Amino acid sequence: MWDERISVVRAFADAITERDLETALEQCHPEVEFFSLMAQLEARPYQGFAGIRRYFKEIDATWGEWRVDVEQLSSAPDGRVLIIMSTHMRGVGSGLPFAERVANIWEFKDEKLWRQTLYRDPDEAVRAIEVQLDT
Question: I need a labelling partner for 50 at 20 to 30 A (CA). Which of 31, 58, 86, 134 fits?
Fold first, then answer.
């Protein structure tokens, strides 16, 4: 189960870099909640398949480049998956680059991506997994 879940998270990250909406949707549960860096601007996650479609449209409209470099993928005993990655963006109009190292913790429903929590500090994500497992 854990290897399959890690593969799902990896496929979703790769789909973002490749701007492959269909592959991204295949990894998601219909009730997916995705709180990306862009979702922080509105302080609400992208929800459902419509939200994932909107996320991809907003990437295309805003960023000439949006690349995810996966640094680490690991599964917790409770089935959640931690991904630590560097995101690299370049503005469409300005051409200005932006990069940030972040982490996500993904929860699953029916073996699909369901709920995700974004951590701007990857060490905080690692601590969150450890704390939640200890309780």
Answer: 86
The pair of structure tokens assigned to 6 is 């890690």
Q: Which of 100, 114, 97 is nearest to 45 (CA)?
A: 114
Q: Where are the alpha helices (DSSP H) in 43-119?
A: 48-62
Query: What are the boundaries of each domain within the chain?
Result: 2-134
Pick from 23, 78, 24: which is nearest to 52 by CA? 24
CATH number of the 2-134 domain = 3.10.450.50
Is 64 in contact with 88 (CB distance < 8 Å)? Answer: no
Strand partners, 96: none
Residues 3-19: pLDDT tens digits? 999 999 999 999 999 99
- Residue 43 phi/psi, 5-degree rounding, is 60, 35
In 55-87, which positions are buried (b, 16+ CB within 10 angstroms) versus exposed (e)?
bbebbeeebeebbbeeeebebbeeebbbbbbeb
